[in-house]
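Narrative of activities, Objective 1.

The group set out to show that a structural description can be obtained from nothing but a protein's sequence at a throughput compatible with the screening campaign. Below is one input-output pair from the validation batch, recorded exactly as produced.
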Amino acid sequence: MLLLRHRSILTEHPVFSRTHPCERERRWALVDLSEVNTPSVFGPAQGTSAAEHLSPSFPERAAWGTAGKLRAWQAEALEAYFVHEPRDFLAAATPGAGKTTFALRLAAELRARRTIDRITVVAPTEHLKNQWADAAARAGIRLDPMFKNADRSYGSHYHGVVVTYAQVAARAALHKQLTESSRTLVILDEIHHGGDALSWGDAIREAFGPATRRLSLTGTPFRSDTSPIPFVSYLPDKQGIRMSQSDYAYGYGRALADGVVRPVMFMVYAGHMKWRTRAGDEMEAKLGEGNTKDITSQAWRTALEPSGQWIPSVLRAANSRLTEVRHGIPDAGGLVIATDQTTARAYAVILEDICGEPVTIVLSDEKEASDRIDEFSKNTRRWMVAVRMVSEGVDVPRLAVGVYATSAATPLYFAQAIGRFVRARRRGETASIFLPNVPGLLSLANALELERDHALDRSNREDGDDGMYNPEDAMVAAANKEDKASDDLGQDDVTWQALDSQATFDMVMFDGDEFGELAEPGTDEEFDFIGIPGLLEPEQVSELLRQRQSRQSKRSTDRRKDPVSGEIAPLEPPPLYRTLKEQRTLLSSLVGMWSKLANEPHGMIHSELRRLCGGPAVAQASVTQLQMRIDLLRRRLGRS
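Output recorded for this entry:
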């Protein structure tokens, strides 16, 4: 269970409320004047700013950051650090906020004060090693991203190294030796990876236990499990559950208000799905209906199959959206996040046919893949397709449109994926993410602005269903009781087969509101929403979405007008059912009524309904299939 919480160290240190802004600026000015620039084997010693272009800015100044200044939060975090100069410091800042710049500025400050001599950066992936080294070089710090465990030591012309968590886990004793050889600052990028495996956590503790200073960074300060994260403090909350403690927190909500990150529009697509199960049953369901998790997962899997029509329709819509965005941002790029290599290649073929230009494909965390990401970040190609590889920390600022076409559904992965699109380069940019209408994903999209800490314990409370269903049909009760599924989409089921998938535009989610109604792909109703200009302030986006929704509603009303009388036909009444449980109960009741009239057992009636309407038994049937049986029985009862 994830518990939501926000904590900022600034509220816990009275010095921040007592210190006048001018005094804070004077303090930084004194620090800058104390830089020592004596020559050495490394060239000029690094000052506190690591490079002249990284001068500080403060909260009282404009929050919008530029290349020439630290952002307000970065200066706040630095100031928070130097209140006590702790050995361990955890900074949790939303993806795209600029954690790397903050960390390098802090590293330069500690070197200038002679607190540390060497720097070790630990990153999650090989690609991020190069990215860290490049960023450090721009700040005047030389880090070796090519260091291998077999090298055993690195050249004195470097200020430090960049390694991966896996590299440290492979030879923890070597990295402990390197850490002890100098006064070392260890920067643990995306520290939650330290809990990926017990052996990793133990290795990181062994290797960096002797470090002079440790700076832990994360954009998503929580995990989906209870594995403890090294060098992170946990304190019990009111319920006694141990929660991770950030020393400085800068969440998406505040970053959005500061203009540091882009707001996100979620373009949600539903649709009708058909597939064949391992048992040979043909299933039908619509994305977004109140189905069981199993049925929802299989419908979702069907939607992602490149052989159907759902993915091509969504990719065409996303490409149209990207075209609109590029009118205002000429180099804007798009990213499709795929589940596996086979579907990624298939998506790339579809996209190349749609946009008429080559698509960059990134399939694994290798040098070739890293080079492809770098190349894409520097060119102006429209699309890149990746298999769960473009994740946390990967910096491609021109990404503005995304298609979430993966089966991954954990809060951690979702936050990391969306983080690839929120890095702002100018005011007025908005990210557009295309999502399937899957309840779990929509909940994560709605909770994007909430900040989470890592819970080390689980709650003892169980939220279960009340189990009160029609006692006449035991399999209905059993089906409702077993309404659960795993997070994956059953990819190991080799006999499963997607039969058909159709997409419909459902709605736009933006700033806590929902806009739009169901519309067919390629229609004016759809384009009203995906064709919104790419450079608008958030208030303008909301206003335009309201206008488009009003126009769509008027079109719907006009279609219902009688051409002769001008009267508007009433909308179809909403169905009685609202949930799958209610449908099962209603079907069971109708079966009972027909049983009394026809003097037939329930089991025979259910078998006849399956023969006429198709689909599996009640326990496995979808909302669509149950409704077909309900409608058939209602017609029979109406004639009797």
